[in-house]
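Lecture 7 notes: from sequence to structure.

We start with a single chain of 362 residues. Read the sequence below before looking at the structure.
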Amino acid sequence: MMMKREEFLKHLSLTAPALAAEDERIVAVFSSFCFNGGALVTHNDIIAVNVPLKTSFCGVIPGHLLYRFIKSCSGTEVDLIWKEGDEELIVKCGSAKLRLPVIGVKEYPFEFPKLHGDLICEVNEYFFEGLDLCSKIVVDKGLTSWMGGVLFDFTEDLHLYSFGQSRDAICVYKLAGLGFKDKAKKKQVILPVAFCKIALEMYKRIGCEDAKLCVHNNYATLYFSDNSAVFGKTIVSERQPDTVGKVRGYLKEAAKEMIPIQNTFRNALKRAAAIATNEELCSITIVDGKLNMRTEVRGGNLKDFVALKKKHPDVDVLVNPKLLVRMMDCCTDMRITDSMVVFLGGKKFTYITANKQQQQQQ
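Now the structure, written as tokens:
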């Protein structure tokens, strides 16, 4: 079976993130591509991807070998040489031939769930914007920690929450009208950040027309109009704190007296972030509308001054400038309190970073 190498590589690239790592001690099929005749499927026991692809070849083959081979080829076409009953697939591209062992599709341990259930919502471009912003601060931890995912809080609206590795940064994104008015359908689930990143790649290639998110107790699936889909197991942790309740308290505290983020402050903060390591901190002091910054770094220190154009309460905090800069360009307004720095991006996005000074005192 002949196909364009570039198109074939796009399909492999979209599904490869759901391959288990080669050095991971796990069942071999979890690091394999499954060609079932109508779709290309990968599943690593945490997330799964389904991309429509019609092939005469049906079988399960080593994923990383195939992916590396196709990426390294320069030929314009790929030929999959196989007939039913063969225990080997020949992949030909240009003058090169790769031979791969084949196991039957019936041996593959995963089948994509159908679109069903009570918690189904149609998603839009703002949903994917929220996924993108909230995913930026999350460190992938698989299913081992609730901080390795994005929390979906379904009430009348859908709120997305994510947390930095040491809980010193929080993202919140509000999607008005994407929740459920029925109280019986209110739900919280945490999905791995890998699920979110694959969903974003699918959105970039396919768009969001007729995209639907289906949520169950132990998994969620996002379906696209061309029958592509991404599946993710939910992260369950008995140690998960009442994160939503705490964040709502933070937001209530910071809701007053927001001021625009001035370009002079943006530039000063970027200078501090440029010279600081990931661990070095910056003090921000506001007195009578004058904002002073001091960044202590190994081998020196940086001082900066910003005259605020809007009234802001006096405050003294110690912050990580790299954390603040990471999301600052997505935001337009700010407020600094005794416990945190809050940036707002319109009515949807909120970014919170902790006052390290207060943490150190505790």
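The helical segments are 5-15, 63-72, 125-135, 193-206, 243-254, 263-275, 321-328, 356-361. Keep this in mind for problem set 3.
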